[in-house]
């Protein structure tokens, strides 16, 4: 599976000057399910289908970037994200096309300072076909060609827009983990507000709109890199747990609670801890974990929505740890009726807070 998948993706990312997205669909038709004998192409198509069935939309992740417009077929290739080839979207117009293999640059031209359609019909579209033509032009509106660059394939899951096996593996793993229903991925904690529980629940299901998740939904965003470090793609585990900037916060937390053990994100969400002396302390430790996750996501969104570079850099430098200590104390002291907290005690020995 891995080898054949790699072959098709490499082929697609390298870009076919003639076929564009049609590579896959053409070979699906030619060698796909109808083929009786196993062939390399049927393996490839089968692998792509399996990946799609997992919920990783391969065809949406691989986007044709139109620049010069001379290497992409106007009707056969998937020019517009998620729409599919124009011949399938507008069959009436395709039937009227005089040159079925025409290129984007043949049909979309700059005339009198405006990008517009330059059509070659066997007869002028009328009735419903005329309505289709209006829709087609609306879809193409905003498309401008760039003579200086070749048309190319872009991979949505990396900042460089180049395909990597690692990025696809991560996408598949995160989808597989999200589909695993054998154990509840998260335990609700009644000592934190509902919004914090909901956030952690979405983390457990990998439903937060991280850059990677947004890309996987086929939405075009300028960059997929982590907003904290700018070094790696932003996926759930990196953003909340593995990013060097976020790790510093977790390390402060471990030191504060004098914890030597290392937990996975999954243990943290479930509240699976084996170092605490009783379940009361376990629940308290879980409170801080969930507060930390919630606050890191809030911090990340603050960086995302800043308007200037200065604000981004100042938000990135922020030390969020004191706020996490403060909020987790506030929330627990308001909700856990059997205990009383003092700030000094909380900071010095959080695991030994008195139970009354
Ligand atoms: Zn990072």
Give a brief rundown of this model.
With 356 residues, this protein is mainly alpha-helical.
Quantity of strands, as a count = 4
> Which class best fits the helix and strand makeup?
mainly alpha
Which ions, cofactors or small ligands are bound in this entry? zinc ion
H/I helix tally: 18
Q: Number of folding domains?
A: 2
Mean model confidence by pLDDT? 81
Q: Taking strands numbered 1, 2, ... along the chain, how are they ordered across the largest sheet?
A: 1-4
Low-confidence stretches at least 5 residues in length (pLDDT < 50)? 1-8, 10-35
Oligomer: single chain
Rg measurement, Å: 26 Å
Shape: elongated
What is the H/E string?
HHHHEHHHEEHEHHHHHHHHHH
Largest sheet: 2 strands, antiparallel
Strand content: under 5%
How far apart the termini lie comes to 59 Å
Layout of helices and strands, plus pairs?
Elements: H1 2-14, H2 22-31, H3 40-53, H4 58-61, E1 62-65, H5 86-89, H6 91-96, H7 104-107, E2 108-111, E3 114-117, H8 128-140, E4 152-155, H9 165-179, H10 194-204, H11 211-216, H12 236-242, H13 244-256, H14 265-270, H15 279-304, H16 309-317, H17 321-335, H18 343-348
Antiparallel strand pairs: 1-4, 2-3
Helix pairs in contact: 1-3, 10-15, 12-13, 15-16, 15-17
Bound molecules: zinc ion (ZN).
Zinc ion (ZN) binds at residues 226, 228-229, 231-232, 238, 243.
């Amino acid at each position: 599976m891995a080898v054949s998948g790699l072959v098709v993706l490499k082929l697609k990312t390298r870009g076919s000057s003639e076929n564009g997205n049609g590579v896959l669909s053409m070979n699906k038709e030619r060698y796909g399910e109808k083929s009786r004998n196993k062939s390399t192409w049927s393996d490839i198509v089968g692998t792509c289908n399996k990946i799609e069935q997992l919920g990783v939309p391969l065809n949406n992740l691989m986007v044709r970037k139109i620049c010069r417009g001379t290497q992409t077929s106007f009707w056969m290739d998937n020019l517009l994200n998620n729409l599919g080839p124009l011949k399938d979207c507008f069959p009436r117009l395709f039937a009227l096309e005089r040159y079925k293999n025409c290129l984007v640059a043949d049909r979309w031209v700059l005339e009198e300072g405006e990008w517009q359609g330059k059509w070659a019909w066997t007869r002028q579209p009328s009735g419903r076909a005329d309505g289709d033509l209006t829709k087609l032009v609306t879809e193409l509106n905003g498309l401008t060609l760039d003579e200086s660059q070749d048309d190319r394939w872009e991979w949505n899951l990396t900042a460089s827009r180049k395909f990597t096996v690692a990025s696809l593996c991560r996408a598949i793993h995160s989808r597989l983990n999200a589909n695993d229903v054998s154990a509840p991925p998260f335990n609700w904690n009644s000592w934190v507000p509902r919004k914090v529980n909901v956030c952690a629940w979405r983390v457990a299901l990998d439903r937060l709109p991280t850059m990677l998740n947004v890309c996987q939904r086929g939405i075009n965003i300028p960059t997929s890199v982590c907003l904290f470090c700018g070094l790696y793609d932003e996926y759930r585990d990196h953003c909340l747990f593995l990013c060097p900037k976020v790790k510093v916060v977790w390390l402060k937390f471990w030191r504060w609670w004098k914890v030597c053990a290392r937990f996975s994100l999954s243990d943290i969400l479930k509240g699976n801890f084996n170092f605490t002396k009783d379940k009361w302390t376990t629940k308290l430790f879980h409170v801080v974990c969930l507060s930390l996750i919630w606050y890191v996501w809030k911090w990340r969104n603050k960086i995302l929505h800043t308007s200037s570079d200065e604000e981004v850099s100042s938000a990135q430098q922020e030390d969020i740890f004191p706020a996490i200590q403060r909020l987790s104390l506030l929330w627990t002291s308001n909700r856990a009726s059997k205990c009383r907290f003092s700030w000094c005690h909380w900071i010095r020995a959080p695991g030994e807070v008195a139970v009354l």
